[in-house]
Structures are given as C-alpha cells and as structure tokens.
Amino acid sequence: MHKLGKYKETDSMSFLISDSYRILLVMSRFGIGLGLGDKTIGDVCLENGVDAKTFLIIVNMLLDEDGLIDYSKGEISMESLLFYLHNSHDYFLDFKLPAIRKELVDIMDLQPGELSQAVVRYFDEYVSEVRKHMMYEEETVFPYVRALINGEKSNKYNINIFRTQHDQVELKLHEFKNILIKYYPAKSTNQINSLLFDIFTCEYDLASHNAIEDRLFVPVVTEYEQSLMKK
C-alpha cells in the first residue's frame, strides 16, 4: 500500500487548504472548487470524480519534497494524473505566464527603451520554449501513455526518450529573475517587487510540476511499459 504520509482521505479538505495554501493549485488542476464545508478529502474527491489516492500522493509529495514516494502502479489513476498534468499546462500557458507578461509590460512601459524591449523579448522567448516543451508532452507523450493504458505497445517510442529530453523549464525563468534583480533599474519598487514575487512563485511551481513528472509520472509509465513487455 502507498504510504499516504501526513494527510489521509478522512482528513478535512478545508483543513488541508488552511495548512498549506499551495494545495489550492492542486485542487484547481483536478477541477475541484471551493465551498467545501467540513467535507473530508475523500468525500470531496468522490464528488468531483477525482481519484483520492492519486490526489493524496501528489499532495503529500509536494508537501514533503524530499520524502520517499512509495506506491504501486495500481494505486495511481493514470487518467487522473494525465488530467492533472494537462490542466497544469493550461494554467502556465493560458493564465500564469500571460499574467506575468502583463505585469512586465506595464513596468517596462514606464521606462521605454532598448533595455525594456530586450527584457520583454527575453521573456517572450522563454515562454515560447515552455510552450514548445509542454506541447511536446501534449501531442507526443500523453497520447503514447494513453495507448499504453489501452495495452498498445510501441516500437518507436518509450518514456526514457522523454526522460532524457525533459528540460527544466524553470531554469531560464530563474535566469530572467536574476537579470531583473541585478540589472533593471525600475522606478516603481512596488510594481517590480510584485512582479518578482510572482516570478519566484511561478519558478517554484514549475519546479514542482517537473518533480511530479520526474518522480511520479515517469516511474509509473515505466511500470506500464515493463508490464506490456512481459505479455
């Protein structure tokens, strides 16, 4: 059995959120809204069609980043995990990164010039890389995994290809953040600090997203591959 760690299905979902606000992002990516009352994690997941064990494995992994993930393939709902990862991509590409860009442009407009243009261009190039990375997962990796779930083998692709090509998309954002901190002489301290705070949190969230793919998604997909090889 999976060691569910600190939180269990019988715990209150509202307590979980109060204990760690980061779980709000996990909930939204599973399609879980608020208005939870005193319902347990298990009840909330059941009402929203979410596999509770998969939800808790992700929650406990994110809250104990250095902890051992102990699970079996049968305890992970791959459909729920794929749903979570897909919604994570939508969050970054359609919400978080565009919101950061808007903040960035508003600040750069206060000090127009070549430096400001270069800063925005650098960020746009970064977002383009992130989009390319995530679209590769959506168009190549996820369909491959769904085929595996249906018992279809492939001689042209395996998850190790994804593992070796898996870019750490948060690293360039880290570089961008440092450029702003070290070299951009912003006139509005409140605005630039607010932007940097959002970049810090986005960088952390992207790193957590990559950790879920590396430490959970890839190993489970590997188990599916190994199971099919034995047939």
Features:
mainly alpha; 2 domains; 9 helices; 70% helix
Describe it.
- The structure is a single chain.
- This protein is mostly helical and 231 residues long.
- It folds into two domains: 1-75, SP0561-like (Orthogonal Bundle), CATH 1.10.3910; 77-229.
- The protein contains nine helices and no strands.
- It has helices at residues 13-19, 23-29, 41-47, 52-63, 78-108, 114-149, 159-165, 170-183, 189-229.
Give me a quick take on this structure:
The chain is an all-alpha fold. Helices cover 70% and strands 0% of the residues.
SSE layout and pairing:
Blueprint: H1 13-19, H2 23-29, H3 41-47, H4 52-63, H5 78-108, H6 114-149, H7 159-165, H8 170-183, H9 189-229
SSE arrangement, N to C: HHHHHHHHH
Mean pLDDT: 88
Q: Extract low-pLDDT stretches.
A: none
Structural Rg: 20 Å
Biggest sheet architecture: none
Instruction: Bin the helical content.
Output: over 70%
Domain module tally:
2
Tell me the number of strands. 0
Share in β-strands = under 5%
> Number of helical runs?
9
- Span between N and C termini? 25 Å
SSE class:
mainly alpha
Q: What best-fitting shape do the alpha-carbon axes yield?
A: globular
